[in-house]
Amino acid sequence: MNTPLITAELAADEAGVTAATIRKWVQRGHLRAAGAQGRRQLYRLEDVFAAERATYRARNCTR
Questions:
Q1: Which of 50, 31, 58 is nearest to 8 (CA)?
Q2: Beta strands 35-37 and 40-44: pairing type?
């Protein structure tokens, strides 16, 4: 399957978060880069949404 890859900035726009949040998800292991363009990490949109769901669930389970 040849899914298009997007930058952290575009991923953040699509998920309604900041690019810093995307980077934090990567640091915490919720999201992995699927490729690179020079020094920029690229992500699959479906992986970004999966990370968003996982972090949302984790946030709500602790309450």
A1: 31
A2: antiparallel
The C-alpha atoms of residue 63 and residue 4 are separated, in whole angstroms, by 36
pLDDT tens by residue, 6-54: 999 999 999 999 999 999 999 999 999 999 999 999 999 999 999 999 8
- Model-level pTM? 0.83
Tokens 């890859």 label which residue?
Answer: 5
For residue 18, what are the CA distances in angstroms to 3, 8, 11, 14, 40?
A: 22, 9, 9, 10, 16
End-to-end CA distance of the chain: 38
Sign of CA dihedral 49, 46, 12, 34: positive
